[in-house]
Amino acid sequence: MSTFRVPYTGFALKNAAIKQELMQAFEAVLDSGRYILGSEVKAFESEFAEYCQAKFAIGVANGTCALHLVLRELGISAGDEVITVPNSFIATAASVALIGARPVLVDVGEDLNMAAGSIDAAITPRTRAIIPVHLTGRPARMDEIMAVARQNNLLVIEDAAQAVGAELHGKRVGAWADAACFSLHPLKNLHAFGDGGMVTTNNSDIAAKTAKLRNHGLVNREQCDSWGFNCRLDEVQAALLRVQLRQLDGWTKERRRLAFRYNELLKPYVQVPEEQPGEFCVYQTYVIQAERRDELRSYLVQHGVEALVHYPVPIHLQPAAKELGYTAKDFPITIKACSRILSLPLYPGLTESQQDEVVNWIAKFYQGN
Questions:
Q1: Cα dihedral value 314, 73, 173, 192, nearest 10
Q2: Positive or negative, the Cα torsion across 24, 26, 31, 37?
Q3: What angle do CA 291, 293, 299 make, to 5 degrees?
């Protein structure tokens, strides 16, 4: 149980309203005797694809598996280069490195998403693909990124781990690129009770190959067409996710209401994440940029507000990325943001009084009280 008056997450609050449905879904799977790749996974895949405005969806074990499987199915391999960003969770670049390819990083824009204008300079004869990340639930500029990709005959994979339901110009993330990868980790807006992930695509060949690769490369129990992996989404998780998917639009509406309220109240003190024309953000994290960030975070924690940083150390400065050869002077927008970003509590069930407490402590910090 959290000791914070304003904890960063509120799982119990959100789950309480649908607990009976969740338990019924769990019991139905329990009683069915079918726990792997059954009717619940199939139904969730169909519903998730429709939600994302994509033709196909494939349930996998987690978001990292989603990235890894898609990269393999698209033929990315040793010696290839894949362009992505330095301010994502480590799994984005790691998925590229683990298949033997090289992550090539480019800086972000003021929206903290991949700057399309930075891609051309990073393209070499070895470049095969681009992985934009929809950070914090804000859609990357997919129209601009896809234009660059088409001009250079490059594949595009959306890292949509944080952005289920986000839109750009009315088109949902997950429907823009050759494929998209989602995480269903408990901290995501739509989450499993453990790990889970999804791949979406409009390409039937990618869908079929990914579905096979996640299940040992099996066509059926007797025939294996290729060496594959055990990266399946569990049947019980799919059943629980179906219950939550029906609630997702309502939860997103509440997240957006709270985010807009934060924006209005916090504008005098910090830089807030205001949407640009055509964007529909889902605020998986509500991230401000603040002067004296570390002092502010300590002050908030001291006064009962659980604030976090996503992510304080960019990928190119991680020990694992040393061989990539980047330095602290690279990617100045990313470096600046990493010293200023702060994630505030935002979730369905957060009360306005709790939100007011967060705002009041931030105001007091900057007013010197």
A1: -80
A2: positive
A3: 115
Phi, psi of 69 (to 5 degrees): -65, -45
Domain that holds residue 136: 11-245
Cα–Cα distance between 224 and 216 in angstroms, integer? 7
| 3 assigned to some structural domain | no
Residue 283 domain flag: yes
Is residue 200 classed as helix, strand or coil in its secondary structure?
strand
β-partners of residue 224 are 218
Tens place of pLDDT per residue across the chain (369 aa): 468 999 999 998 889 999 999 999 999 999 999 999 999 999 999 999 999 999 999 999 999 999 999 999 999 999 999 999 999 999 999 999 999 999 999 999 999 999 999 999 999 999 999 999 999 999 999 999 999 999 999 999 999 999 999 999 999 999 999 999 999 999 999 999 999 999 999 999 999 999 999 999 999 999 999 999 999 999 999 999 999 999 999 999 999 999 999 999 999 999 999 999 999 999 999 999 999 999 999 999 999 999 999 999 999 999 999 999 999 999 999 999 999 999 999 999 999 999 999 999 999 999 986
Cα-based distances in Å from 105 to 122, 220, 324: 8, 40, 9
Read off the amino acid at residue 20. Q
Q: Measuring CA to CA, which residue among 246, 289, 345 is closest to residue 17?
A: 246
Q: Is residue 331 part of a domain?
A: yes
What is residue 56's DSSP assignment? E
Residue 165's identity, in one-letter code, is G
DSSP state of 189: S
241 and 252, same domain (yes or no): no
